[in-house]
Specification:
- With about 210 residues, the protein is α/β, with parallel strands linked by helices.
- The protein is built from four helices and 14 strands.
- It has one domain: 4-Layer Sandwich (Metallo-beta-lactamase, Chain A), CATH 3.60.15.
- The strands form three sheets. The chain has a six-stranded mixed beta sheet, covered by helices on one side. The protein has a six-stranded mixed beta sheet with strand order 7-8-9-10-13-14.
- The longest helix has 12 residues.
- The protein is globular and about 50 Å long.
Length: about 210
């Protein structure tokens, strides 16, 4: 599996381009802004789907243009689907932070826990991890040898977790999501977050103050 990072927008969101590195279709995760930059990284490759880890404005800013140019379907968890059409606090939140008008077209596919998303030989499994938003998800890549990569959105960062003081956020729910869905993963699983540097599950077990403790 090939993983490419494109850092976009004033909040430096990690937009991830995932493929099987065999000239097949790609998945675009969290195209937050700078559609032209993402388009340059995509070159002429087909886009199998645009996937949102959640519905906040900084993760969706390039969706409308990318959908128009690629024709790719938009995927989001059903609990965040209603956010996409409004920039209010209970929507994308853009108007609250000075990014009024940042909305997205409606989703073409609503995701739930355990669903899979495919592009070529790549398969990502949806882990519903509410807490940052009600429909927050992580995406887990596994192969015949085990699980290798986690795209964690704003659920988990290197040394931290996503904020829970927005509309729809809940710190206790986020802690439970991490304990139930992420803590059981192998230590060597690579974590690709929505902001900041990569990490591993093992590193977060050791250093993250928000990691569940026995």
């Amino acid at each position: 599996m090939k993983v490419e990072r494109v850092v976009v927008g004033p909040l430096e969101v990690n937009c991830w381009i995932v493929s099987d590195d065999a000239c097949g279709p790609v998945l675009v995760i969290d195209p937050g802004d700078d559609a032209f930059v993402i388009a340059e990284a995509l070159a002429v490759r087909d886009v199998a789907a645009i996937v949102l880890t959640h519905g906040h404005f900084d993760h969706i800013g390039a969706v409308r243009e990318l959908k128009a140019t690629t024709g790719a379907p938009l995927l989001v968890h059903e609990a965040d689907a209603g956010r996409l059409s409004s920039d209010a606090a209970a929507g994308t939140g853009g108007a609250v932070f000075g990014f009024a008008g940042v909305t997205s077209p409606p989703a073409d596919r609503l995701l739930n826990d355990g669903d899979t998303i495919e592009a070529g030989t790549v398969t990502l499994t949806v882990l519903h991890t509410p807490g940052h938003t009600q429909g927050g998800i992580c995406l887990l890549a596994c192969d015949e040898d085990g699980c290798t990569d986690l795209f964690s959105g704003d659920t988990l960062f290197a040394g931290s977790v996503g904020r829970t003081d927005f509309v729809g956020g809940d710190g206790r729910v986020l802690a439970r999501s991490i304990a139930e869905k992420l803590a059981p993963l192998d230590a060597d699983v690579r974590v690709h977050p929505g902001h900041g540097p990569d990490t591993t599950i093992g590193r977060e077990q050791r250093v993250n103050p928000f990691w569940p403790r026995a």
